[in-house]
From TrEMBL:
<feature type="active site" description="Proton donor">
    <location>
        <position position="425"/>
    </location>
</feature>
<keyword id="KW-0862">Zinc</keyword>
<feature type="transmembrane region" description="Helical">
    <location>
        <begin position="28"/>
        <end position="48"/>
    </location>
</feature>
<keyword id="KW-0645">Protease</keyword>
<keyword id="KW-0479">Metal-binding</keyword>
<keyword id="KW-0482">Metalloprotease</keyword>
<feature type="transmembrane region" description="Helical">
    <location>
        <begin position="204"/>
        <end position="223"/>
    </location>
</feature>
<feature type="binding site">
    <location>
        <position position="344"/>
    </location>
    <ligand>
        <name>Zn(2+)</name>
    </ligand>
</feature>
<dbReference type="Pfam" id="PF16491">
    <property type="entry name" value="Peptidase_M48_N"/>
</dbReference>
<dbReference type="InterPro" id="IPR001915">
    <property type="entry name" value="Peptidase_M48"/>
</dbReference>
<feature type="domain" description="CAAX prenyl protease 1 N-terminal">
    <location>
        <begin position="50"/>
        <end position="233"/>
    </location>
</feature>
<dbReference type="GO" id="GO:0005789">
    <property type="term" value="C:endoplasmic reticulum membrane"/>
</dbReference>
<dbReference type="InterPro" id="IPR032456">
    <property type="entry name" value="Peptidase_M48_N"/>
</dbReference>
<keyword id="KW-1133">Transmembrane helix</keyword>
<keyword id="KW-0378">Hydrolase</keyword>
<dbReference type="GO" id="GO:0046872">
    <property type="term" value="F:metal ion binding"/>
</dbReference>
<protein>
    <recommendedName>
        <fullName>CAAX prenyl protease</fullName>
        <ecNumber>3.4.24.84</ecNumber>
    </recommendedName>
</protein>
Amino acid sequence: MDKNPTISFDFLHIMSANLSKYWTPVNFFYYSFFASNLIHLWDIYLHYRQHKVYNQKHKVPVELAQYVDEDNFSKARIYNLDKSNFGFIRDLFGLIQKNVFLWIYMPARMWYLSTNLTLELLGREHEIVSTMLFFFLQSALSTVLDLPFSIYSNFVIEERHGFNKYTMRFFIWDMIKKFLVFQPIVAGLVGGATYIVIRFEDQFFLYLWLFSITMTFILMVIYPSVIAPLFDKYTPLEEGSLRTRIQKLASDIHFPLKNIFVVDGSKRSGHSNAYFFGVFKSKQIVLYDTLFEREEEKPQPESTDDSDDKDKLIKEDLSNKEQKKKSGCTEKEIVAIICHELGHWNHSHIYKNLFISLVNMFFIFMIASIFYKDRVIFEAFGFRGEKMPCFIGLLLVIENIFLIYFEVFNFFMSIISRKFEFQADDFAKNLNFRSELINALVKLNKDNLSFPVYDWLYSALLHSHPPILDRITALKKID
Ligand SMILES: [Zn+2]
C-alpha cells in the first residue's frame, strides 16, 4: 500500500536532480545567448519582409487609388526605403553590441566599476548607491553609443525628406537637457526599488509592485505639467472657431476639458500628432502645431540657434519652392482627430492598458522573486564573490527568463491596441465625423509620408495602429 508514495517521491526526486544537473552558469549563458539572438534575428526578418514590400510596390494599389496619388506614394516609398536601410544597419550594430557585451561580461564589469566608485566616494560599500551608479553609467554608455545613429537619422534621413527641423546646436542642447532631467528621476526610481528589494527580501515583489503603481501615477500627473514644458512650449489655443468647436464637442460628450494647448513640435520635426492628458476631472488636449493647415510655409527654427542656421534656411527655402503644396488639416478635420482621441477616453483605453501592464508586472515580479538570488544566473553573467547586487540580479532574471514571453506579450498588446483604434474611430463615426476623420487620416498619412501597404506578418506583429485602408473601410461601413 505505502509503496506508491515512495515511488512517486523517488521519481520527483530523481527528476529534479536530473534537471538541476542542467541548471549551470554555462548553460544559462548559452540559453541567454541563443534566445536573445533568435529574437533579434526574428525582428530583422520581420523588417526584411516589409523592406521587400517597399522595394516591390512601385504603383498605388487599386483599392488605395482614390486616397493616395502616385507622387506621394513614391515619395513615401523612397522615405521608408531609406529608413528601412538605415534600420538594418542600426539593428546589426545592436546585435553585435549585445553579443560583445554578453561575451565580455559587461554587466559584471559595470557593477565592479560602480562598487569601486562608491568606495572612493563614500569610503565604504553601499549597495543602493552602487546600483544607482550602475544605472547612470549604463545609460550614459547607451546614450553615447546611440548618438551617431540618432544624428544620422535626424540630420541625414529625416532632413533628406524634409522632416528634420533640428539645428545641430538645438539637438545637442535637447539631448543634454533630456539627460539632466531624466537621470535624477531614474536614480530615484532605481534607489527606491533597490531599497525595497533589500529590505523585504523574498517578499519584495508585493512592495515593489505597489511602489511601481505609485510611481506610475505620480509620473502620469507630473510629466505633462512639470516635465514636458521643460522641453516644449505649450501655448493655450487662441480664442476662435476651432476652440469653440472643440469645447462644444467636449461638453456634448461630458469630457472634463480644462484647457487646450498647442505645442511647438515643429521646432523638432515636421511629423504631426494630437493627444490628451490629465487625471480624473481635469483633462487637457494638446495639438501639434504641425497639424494645422498651412501653405508649406515651414516654421523657422528657434531664434536662439541662429548662427549655424543660414545654410539650413536656404535649403529649406529651396525645398519649399519645390513642393509648394498645402499640408495640415482643416478645422473640422482637427476636431475629428480630437474626437478620435476622446474615443480613447470614452472607452477608458488608457486605464485598460494600465491595468493589463500592472497585472503583468505583478506576475513577472512574483516569478522573478524565486530566481533573483540564484548564483547560477549571476555567475552566468560573470559576477563573482560573496555579495550579489539584488536589484541588478532581479533585472538580469527579468531580461533573460522572460525574453520570449515579452515577445508574445507585445504581440497581444498590439492586437489590443489595434482594437482600441477601431473603437476610437467608431466613436468619432457615431458622432458624425465619418468623412472628416477619413479625410484627416488620408492627410496625416500623406503629410507624414506613411507607406500605406504592409506585409501581413510585419503588420500583425508590430503595428499598434491598423493599416489606413482597414481604418477607412471600417469607417465607411454602415451599421
Ligand atoms: Zn488612436
